[in-house]
Design a protein that fits this description.
Blueprint: E1 7-13, H1 20-31, E2 37-43, E3 59-60, H2 65-71, H3 74-80, H4 83-96, H5 103-114, E4 121-130, H6 135-143, E5 144-153, H7 161-171, E6 176-179, H8 182-191, E7 199-201, H9 208-215, E8 227-232, H10 242-255, E9 259-264, H11 270-279, E10 286-290, H12 296-301, E11 304-307, H13 316-323, E12 328-331, E13 346-349, H14 353-365, H15 367-379, H16 386-400
Parallel strand pairs: 1-2, 1-4, 2-3, 4-5, 5-6, 6-7, 8-9, 8-11, 9-10, 11-12, 12-13
Helix pairs in contact: 4-5, 10-14
Length: about 400
């Protein structure tokens, strides 16, 4: 198929930082048929760890004018004499400091304050896809021309009463709405039952062959003769539950077992985590590694992967641990049994530090259990083309309906 006959698709996402949705997007783009699709990608923040992994056929669009503006200092903003941008930035900054909000409310505040600073994009796409809720969803509705529009819901929406009508206005303008798990789909349908017929279930995916190759790129220098634990997560207390992780680590230290816990990721909770490590003298048991474009050698080298989430739409990092045959201890969040088979590929615990610590100690001390989990993981099916099949089907149906 020549370029003129290809389906022109725009994807929009906040950034390509090291997070679940972003890794899933990279995997999706890497496995699409470049002879069928002509793909462009718009980000709101550049320089993320995963940008280097974009397939060559994807055209990464340049930064938007307003997002470049807000990266500059206030002095540079003032000297630009761009009053519209300056007013938007200052208004949002001031309003953000008033009251407490969840993630959805913050995204709503941002867009309602600054949306006039973004120009409408002139190009008319065949398909425009917001690959995350929040700002990408608002942007695709308000600023992008496309024959059909799709949005991904890759987290369970937590909507306050003041956000419900705002979100309804945007989601009702999409032709298709993609959920990444059955529970994720059911959650959305309860909030917006009148949109149920537009819902598609397309699971997050992993680029299996690429992950296997990356896992062998280097050797990880973990502590010898020590039980090494890994967590890969955005550093936050809320849905990711890193406060549970920290308390669990403290309890393990008090129990006197020999372990070292490594955490890969970045986020707003990092400074509090560092303070907790200092106050509780955990530096010889817990290391914050920051971020990396290639966490897979760490998965492969770890004795155990631990996740203490309160909520996940799917759980990409658990899928990566399973792929690399690393036993898992995880909390019982809403979609956990989409992947976990209790006692077979790992342990699922209650959502508190004491239960997580008990699960870790059990899997460390019971060598027979540990061995059986590893054997089960090695036999689990790894390859899946279902995501690509469902994506292609969705696009073909939308194109045919034009």
């Amino acid at each position: 198929m020549n370029k003129q006959n290809k389906i022109k698709i725009l994807f929009v996402i906040e950034s390509l930082s090291l997070a679940g949705s972003e890794k899933s997007l990279i995997a999706l783009l890497s496995n699409l048929d470049s002879n069928l699709y002509d793909v462009e990608l718009q980000l709101f923040s550049y320089g993320g760890e995963l940008e280097s992994l974009l397939p060559s056929y994807v055209n990464l669009l340049p930064p938007l004018s307003y997002t470049k503006f807000v990266k500059k200092s206030l002095v540079q903003n003032i000297l630009s004499f761009n009053l519209r941008f300056l007013w938007s930035k200052l208004t949002y900054t001031i309003r953000l400091r008033v009251g407490k909000r969840n993630v959805t409310d913050t995204a709503k505040l941002y867009w309602s304050t600054v949306h006039r600073a973004f120009k409408k994009y002139d190009y008319n796409y065949d398909i425009a896809i917001a690959y995350a809720q929040g700002v990408p969803t608002y942007y695709v509705v308000d600023k992008i021309k496309a024959q059909k529009k799709i949005t991904w819901v890759n987290a369970n929406l937590q909507l306050s009463k003041r956000s419900l009508s705002f979100e309804e206005k945007y989601y009702s303008q999409f032709d298709n709405i993609v959920s990444v798990s059955k529970i994720n789909k059911q959650h959305f349908a309860k909030i917006f039952p009148f949109l149920t017929e537009r819902l598609w279930l397309i699971p997050d995916m992993l680029d299996v062959s690429n992950i296997y190759g990356m896992a062998d790129m280097f050797q990880v220098d973990f502590k010898k003769n020590t039980f090494n634990i890994l967590t890969v997560s955005r550093l936050e207390k809320g849905m990711k539950g890193l406060d549970i992780t920290m308390e669990t680590c403290r309890l393990l230290k008090e129990s006197g077992i020999d372990f070292h816990w490594y955490i890969i990721g970045k986020g707003s909770y990092r400074s509090e985590m560092q303070e907790f490590i200092g106050v509780n003298e955990l530096s010889s048991h817990l290391t914050l590694l920051g971020t990396t474009t290639n966490p897979y050698p760490y998965f492969k080298a770890a004795d155990l992967y631990v996740q203490t989430s309160r909520s996940e739409s799917y759980g990409i990092s658990i899928a990566e641990a399973r792929l690399l045959n690393t036993p898992i201890v995880t909390t019982r969040f809403d979609t956990v049994y989409n992947q976990m088979v209790e006692g077979k590929n790992g342990l699922v615990t209650d959502l508190n530090p004491e239960a997580v610590a008990c699960g870790i100690i059990e899997i460390m001390k019971d060598k027979g259990l540990y061995s059986s989990i590893v054997n089960y993981l090695r036999k689990e099916p790894k390859e899946s083309s279902e995501t690509i099949k469902r994506f292609d089907s969705m696009i073909s149906k939308l194109i045919a309906s034009n």
